[in-house]
Every structure is written in structure tokens, then in C-alpha cells.
Design brief:
133 residues; 25% strand; elongated
Length: 133
Amino acid sequence: MRPLTDDETKTMFEKLSKYIGENIKHLVDRPDGTYCFRLHNDRVYYISETILKLATNISRDKLVSVGTCFGKFTKTIKFRLHITALDFLAPYAKGFGVAAKSTQECRRVDPMSIVVFHQADIGEFIRSEDTLT
């Protein structure tokens, strides 16, 4: 488990900023302690620094995972978010999706058109079907 390089950090933060904007700083400096991102087998883990210090006692080849997997780097060095990151991103984001159409187009589309592509959803529609508009 190693810290991310500058290029890896930039790539990951660019992806995160699409969903939570400037709130990335709230992921690292939390009131319950300091958290960091670490890379292990092309996967990025979000981990408390206190847990990270305890994990140094385990050799790298024996370590499977520690912390929460935020995503992974592909072979072409693109960062893909995993659904396990949703619990940490949801408090800082309004919706977790990408717009399929511009705001102007959304006003004129028919009711059955796709407006937002969902990146991840853990049953939000089923839980709050009555309150969604």
C-alpha cells in the first residue's frame, strides 16, 4: 500500500470533483480524524491514518484490502469510481449522475426522455419513490 503519485491524485480528484466539487477537502479533513487515499493493486482505498499505521504491520503481499475502496485505475490510467464510494460521496453531492442533456434541452423534452444517466444507485428510487419528483 503506497501513497498516490501526483498524477494519480490529480486524475482521481478530477473525477471526484465532477460529483462533489470543492467538497473534496471534507473527505480528507474530517472532524473524526484525518483520512487519506492509498493505492494497492491498482485500487484506491480511503482509510483513516490511525488504521493505516496499524496496517503497516502486515506485509504487502499478505494485505488484501484495508479501508473503503473508492475506485480503481484502469490500464489506460483512467479512474473509475466504485459503488462502495457512494456512502462517502452522497453527503456532499446533489444527486449522483451525469446529465445527458443541457438545461435548455431538458425544458423541451418529452416526459419519457432520458435526462440523467445514473452512475450508481443503492435503491434510492425504491426507498423514496413517493418523494421523488
